[in-house]
Amino acid sequence: MTAATTVYFAPFQGNAISLYDGSRWQIITFSEKSVAVPSNAKRYLWNMCNRVPRKLLAQSTTDSWDYTTATWRAANGSSTNGVTEVEFVLGQQIEPVKLAVLVPKVLNSTGQVDVSAGIGIDSTSSNSANVYGGKAHTVGTSTFASYTGFPGVGYHYGQWLEIAQASNTTTWYTDLQSGGSQRMGGLRGEIWN
Q1: What is d(CA 36, CA 34) in angstroms, rounded to the nearest whole number?
Q2: 73-102 residue pLDDT tens
Q3: pTM
């Protein structure tokens, strides 16, 4: 089967299954359940045995936007899954979650300013990245952030963040696919499930 968007589960024996709802385990009775097949931006199924690495990916198709404020926020003011955010579920803390953000070009209208991409774990305003930072200037430069860690068992999201020194206008470029200029930024990661 290809291009399936839903997996259906019918119990072999009995009519109950234990499901974690994000805060506690619940016994659910049913005759059939369906679950949306995970995408690269949503990894909701976790397997104790035979785990394999799975890609996480969120990419903005917006060419550029301005943000010149010294406060962490969701990139381009967006917390849209698959654009600036990825979601996942962990059943145990065995392998670390790895996330990275690349913004191919950031420039400031008049000079050098401090800028950074970041990664919020379960936050749109607090940076959890282990490595981040950079400078923007009039000709532009790239900025990068990386997170490797154990956020805990259960549901989590990774949010692409941004911050810029409040001086003049800082423009963030992520998607440029024309002529000789080929850039694509975004949030990429890996979990084992």
Answers
A1: 7
A2: 999 999 999 899 999 999 988 999 999 999
A3: 0.79
